Amino acid sequence: MSAQQPASAYFLDDTKKVTETHTLAVVVDNEPGVLARVIGLFSGRGYNIDSLTVSETEHNAHVSRITIVTTGTPDVIVQIRHQLERMVPVHSVADLTVQGNAISRELAMVKVAGKGDKRVEALRLADAFRARVIDATTESFVFELTGKTDKIEQFIALMLPLGLVEVARTGVAAISRGPEGMKI
Prior knowledge:
By secondary structure, the chain is α+β, with helices and mostly antiparallel strands.
């Protein structure tokens, strides 16, 4: 036996699989327990949800749209999509990342407390990021910021040394470009 070959007859693929972040749009019946079932699919199999938004989108049809941002290997992402498609209350699943050409945004409210130069700098940066002041006291601001997730992350990182107190985020909302919509 050479030094290059393992002792076992079974060769294990020990190369690390590359993980990807995908945004999935899921149209479901708007009824009690559906969200819990979708979340149960993820938690039961050890998949992570990075972001989750849900709201009724068509009142007459009683359907909701769930936008899920998740991370996994390409095989795991395909498996998640197929498992979602098999669920009874699910009407359709679209992988907006694979389809490409999707628009995604997130809303964040960022509270910063500070005085003097830190307060001035926070206002200057907020203006540069096009964040709106939605609440102000003599010692703090609450900024409202909408944009891509990386823009939100960058703004939060810049506010940390200036007196970041609290952050509330909506999660990602995403939609594909063009005239076509998701099927119900």
